[in-house]
Specification:
DUF6588, 10-stranded antiparallel beta barrel, signal
Length: 335
C-alpha cells in the first residue's frame, strides 16, 4: 500500500513538472512506476553499506582514557579494515517486487548489494515504444574495505581532551568512502587517587562524525534520454557516546570501550543530470522521494584495544565487534 501511494505521488509530481505536451499519460505513468522500482532497489542495495559505515567510523576514537599533561598533542596515522559479512553481500528480487520492471528470463534473481560482488542481471520494461534494459548495479567485490585516516588529540585543562579525525575520499571499486569527526573526552579516574595509583583509568567521550559513501547506481536510457540517476550517495551523521576503561602494565595499556551511537541516514542521487531533465526535473523528484527512506538507527558496539609505547611513539590495534567486525591499526607520536 505504501508503495502504491508513493507511485501516485510520483505521477502527480511528474505531471505537474512536465514541460512538454509530447509526453503521453502512459509514458509519464511508466516513468513514475520506474522511479518507484528504483526507490525499492536503492533501499535494498545501499542499506548494508550504510550500516557498515557506522562501524567504520566508530572504531579507534579513544587512544587512551588516561589523563595526560595539559596541552600534550598526539598525532596518529591509522588504517581501518572493515570485514564484509556474507549475509550482507546479496539480496533476492522477484517480479512481484516491481511495478515497471521485470527480470529478464526469470521470475526471481539474487543480486549484489553495494557490499557484494560484481554479478549482474538485466531488468526490462518499455517506455515510448522502446525497451528499457537495465543492468543491476555491481558491488565493491571486496571481502574487506580498508581506508587510512589522520587523527589528533590535544589535552585540555581539567582532564578534557579534544579529538579530531579526517580521511580523504577512499576510492572503492564502484565508489568512494570518506569520514571526518571531532569530539571531547573527559577522564574521571583523576578524582579517585586509589585508581590512579593502580594505573586504572576511566573516561567518557562524546563524538560527532560524518560518513559519506557513494556508489555507481542505475544507468537507465529511455526514449526520452538518460535518467541521470547513475550515482547513489548516502550521508550518515553519527553521535558516539563512549565509556572507556584501561589498565596499564608498564609500557603496555589494555583498553576496553563500550560504544553507543545513534545515526541519521540520508540518501541522494547525483552525478551528471540526464537528457530527460529537459522535460522532467527527475533528479530533484527522486531525491525528494529518497527522503521517505531516510532513517535513524542506534547501535551498541564493543571494542578491545592494546597500546604499546616506544619512547614518544605508540603502536595501537583495536578490534570492534557487534553486528559486524572491524579492525583498526595506528601509529602515534606524542609531542
Amino acid at each position: 500500500m505504501r508503495k502504491k501511494f508513493l507511485v501516485i505521488q510520483f505521477v502527480f509530481a511528474l505531471f505537474l513538472s512536465s514541460k512538454s505536451n509530447a509526453q503521453t499519460a502512459d509514458d509519464i505513468q511508466n516513468i513514475a512506476l520506474l522511479l518507484g522500482d528504483a526507490l525499492f532497489f536503492s533501499e535494498q542495495y545501499i542499506q548494508p553499506a550504510t550500516d557498515a559505515a557506522i562501524y567504520q567510523s566508530s572504531s579507534g576514537w579513544i587512544v587512551s582514557p588516561k589523563k595526560k599533561e595539559r596541552w600534550k598533542v598526539t598525532l596518529g596515522l591509522h588504517a581501518n579494515a572493515f570485514f564484509v559479512p556474507k549475509n550482507d553481500r546479496e539480496f533476492t528480487i522477484q517480479n512481484s517486487d516491481f511495478s515497471f520492471f521485470e527480470i529478464e528470463g526469470a521470475a526471481l534473481a539474487v543480486v549484489p548489494t553495494a557490499m557484494g560482488n560484481s554479478n549482474q542481471v538485466y531488468l526490462i520494461g518499455e517506455i515510448g515504444g522502446e525497451q528499457v534494459r537495465l543492468e543491476t548495479p555491481r558491488g565493491v567485490n571486496q571481502e574487506s574495505i580498508v581506508y587510512p585516516y589522520l587523527q589528533g588529540t590535544i589535552e585540555l585543562p581539567y582532564g578534557f581532551e579534544f579529538i579530531g579525525r579526517y580521511s580523504t575520499k577512499t576510492k572503492l571499486k564502484k565508489g568512494y568512502y570518506q569520514v571526518y569527526g571531532f569530539g571531547l573526552k573527559h577522564n574521571f579516574s583523576q578524582y579517585f587517587s586509589k585508581l590512579e595509583a593502580k594505573k586504572i583509568n576511566f573516561a567518557l567521550a562524546t563524538i560527532y562524525s560524518n560518513e559519506e559513501i557513494s556508489f555507481d547506481f542505475l544507468d537507465i536510457n529511455t526514449a526520452y534520454g538518460n535518467l541521470g540517476i547513475n550515482k547513489l550517495t548516502s550521508t550518515v551523521d553519527t553521535f558516539h557516546f563512549i565509556f572507556s576503561a584501561s589498565k596499564e602494565f608498564k609500557k603496555f595499556e589494555l583498553i576496553s570501550n563500550l560504544i553507543v551511537n545513534t545515526s541519521n541516514f540520508e540518501y541522494i542521487v547525483s552525478g551528471q543530470k540526464g537528457e530527460i531533465e529537459e522535460i522532467i526535473p527527475l533528479q530533484q523528484t527522486i531525491n525528494s522521494l529518497l527522503e521517505t527512506i531516510a532513517e535513524r538507527k542506534t547501535n551498541v558496539i564493543g571494542e578491545i584495544s592494546g597500546r604499546y609505547q616506544f619512547d614518544k611513539f605508540y603502536l595501537q590495534s583495536s578490534f570492534a565487534f557487534g553486528k559486524f567486525a572491524n579492525l583498526n591499526l595506528g601509529v602515534q607520536y606524542q609531542f
